[in-house]
Design a protein that fits this description.
The chain is mainly α. The chain has a single domain, classed as Globins (Globin-like). A two-stranded antiparallel ribbon has the order 1-2. It is globular and about 35 Å long. The chain starts with a strand and ends in a 7-residue tail after the last helix.
Length: 136
Amino acid sequence: MQDIRPRGLNDRAPLDEASLAVLLDRFYAKARRDPALGPVFAGAIAEAAWPEHMARIAGFWRSVLFKTGDYKGNPFGAHLRLPGLTPALFARWLALFGETCREVLEPEAAAALQERAERIAESLQAGLFFLPGRVA
């Protein structure tokens, strides 16, 4: 297995595809059981569709981290179609993802990957929840 150091992860914080696979499997198992996130996933992804969804998610993260080009989807469009998606659910997703990163990865890699996830979530939320004319 090739050891890859994605941009933002230095020599002290390696991340390889095997570690990423473990992280994603563990995280999505937790997310599906989570009282807040579980119902969102259950409503959006049929049980039989989970293997395909996990392959798509793995392709997304490999593309983001390792520049593989595996992912050809539209994350904004996918999230736009989710009923009831709120900033609070993004916060819960990020908290659970960070927890899982810390369980699976070395501290430096966990922190760097969590930071990357936060930037992606911020970008998605900017597009999903922007309401012109609304004052925060």
